[in-house]
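Retro notes, item 3 of 5
We never archived the inputs for the 1-deoxynojirimycin complex last cycle. Fixing that now. Sequence and ligand:
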Amino acid sequence: MLVLDSKQARHCAAALLLFTLTLGAKAQTLQDKAERLLQQMTVEEKIGQLTQYSGDWRATGPVTFKGNHEEGIRGGQIGAMLNVLGANSTRAYQQIAMQSRLKIPLLFGQDVIHGYKTTFPIPLAEAASFDLEAIERSARIAATEAAASGVHWTFAPMVDIARDPRWGRVMEGAGEDSWLGSKIAYARVKGFQGRQLGDTDAVMATVKHFAAYGAAAAGRDYNSVDMSERMLWETYLPPFKAALDAGAATFMNAFNDLNGIPASGSQYLQREILKGRWGFSGFVVSDWGSIGEMVPHGYAKDARGAALAAIKAGSDMDMESNAYRNHLGSLIADGLVPATLLDDAVRRILRKKFELGLFDDPYRFSDAKRELAMLNQPAHRQAARDMAAKSIVLLKNKPRILPLSASGKTIAFIGPLVKAVEDNLGAWSVKLPDVDYSKFIVSQWEGVKNRLGPGSKLLYAKGCDIEGERRDGFKEAVAAALQADVVVVSVGESAGMSGEAKSRARIGLPGVQEELIKALHATGKPIVVLINAGRPLIFNWTAEHAHAILYTWWLGSEAGNAIADVLFGAHNPSARLPISFPRAEGQIPIYYNHFNTGRPVSADTQDAFKSGYIDLQNSPQYPFGFGLSYSDFEYADLKQDRQKIAGQDKLTVSLKVSNTGRLAGDELVQLYLRDRVASVVRPVKELRGFRRIHLQPGQTRELSFVIDREQLSFFNERLQWAAEPGEFDLMIGASSADIRLRSSFELTE
Ligand code: NOJ
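Structure as it came back at the time:
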């Protein structure tokens, strides 16, 4: 512990005060500058600052404006762009903006969701790592690369809680748990925004989609959300608040309506909660076309009505709806929109442009030399490989056939994804126009082949396609399996089967892939299944019969190397599922932190007159927090320093974890709490802590958790954040369904 004498302490306090004052003064200067600029702007130029269009790269939504962007930029009618890629292209557009009357620089936004040129695992996969530092590093690297390419602003992190794997965008978030999701949201914002905005390796984060988009009914994208206030505050809003606490510069609203009001037109969400109660000082961008979509929603008569609803609600920037550009002027002229409302939105955007330093040098992010150097850093690839290995979840290893020996073995590597290349990037990856991705991505075939030791042989057969009914490749696949010591099958979705607008009503393994696994299993050879997907899939037969299963999600540029690291034991898996895997679509929504109900059913039975199904148990195929290791861990000696706490007291619990296996490895120890009786019913358990611990074979270590009032708090019956006195159950385990140690304590006041 660092101990300071009183002189040092005074110095530190003075330095801190100076730092705070400097920051304050800097913010004040920026505000003054924004204010002075605002005074010089015409209404049309102000509306320009609220207008964003897609550039020449792949459109990420239906394009509505068919005119010439150059003219609009030169005329001061466009303040921001998205989908303009690369230092040269962003510079070229910025040069046009510098020909406008007031020379207000453009903002360039981009969906930098999981990496830029170096692609990291999809966010859901990264969440499985439960490694907040690695997640922050991944966002940091993505920001460093993107910022060198002229990007000022990423449309990430997506912090929508998702309990419905039919929804294609489940791949883009952190899964089902609000508490874990909040930690990850915080880490991602810190990663993207780095030390401070204004540094040339920092990009503004966008927290999206505000709010409750993850609860789209029936898992259908863009669908309605009908949700209680309690559910909204307790489950869906906390990650947004955490991202805001991390300093997120911008928010994006959402396509869905929430209880009948489209999010883009919701004054409650944007003005009352975000800008009011939470005091958010950044700006809100609409989702792509979401302002205009208030017309088909039936909330606005026409685009003019939509513009009116959106500006009143607090949507500051219109992405691709054309509604502000076409209608705000007349709405102001007709006195329907007060000029102060327009000024508030413009001010919020200008301040960010000042903060980014764009008025000092509009090209400071568009530096082709820096771009070249940054985008080819071996350290980035190494981090992507590390993150990818940390994201792979070992679902089964019985009998223990993993890790495989790399020497003296014949391995049949079979399946439609073995030699796939771009699929490994998953949805929402940035594919730069001038990069040959076939050379930049390590395929699974390449990764495994490069790892083979002496005397080993790799056989290949595709077996079948991802989709479709063709079984004519089965014969060749079975023949390869028969010659091998072990069969590794790589199956799953194609990358394009998850992501935006990729909802699936049936989430089984597509096509005849599970039949292929059956045919290979019939050879009697040991079978390892790799499942590549952007969501939890249902694969009950495989779960029962395959000997080993690795859930690989989409792992990015280094997929093949990371898979080889895990298959051959260079990396001992320690990832955990951030979302429950159902046994059948009929169980959805399925999540671990449900209420008990008045007629609880034990997880694996179907008792009469209980809250279950008559044709299936309630439990998921794989629960939240589940994941195996090549080692075994035992938990013992739970100790707690007190039985009762009051006020701001803290309770410390400790336990011992031992590695009883033969390999060194990490165990992810999870702490769950349950408030037994409260003014509103509480979930059967809630994650409130996790610790990763590295143990050598035979090693035992003690670890502890500290529980404070904050972890016991919830939104009470008046929706106030509070802890209520009473008994709490404390559960420590290896997953939400594998509780190894239990105790209880009391909060007395
Ligand atoms: C629509 C998506 O919902 C949003 O997440 C994304 O940032 C925008 N398109 C821009 O591509």
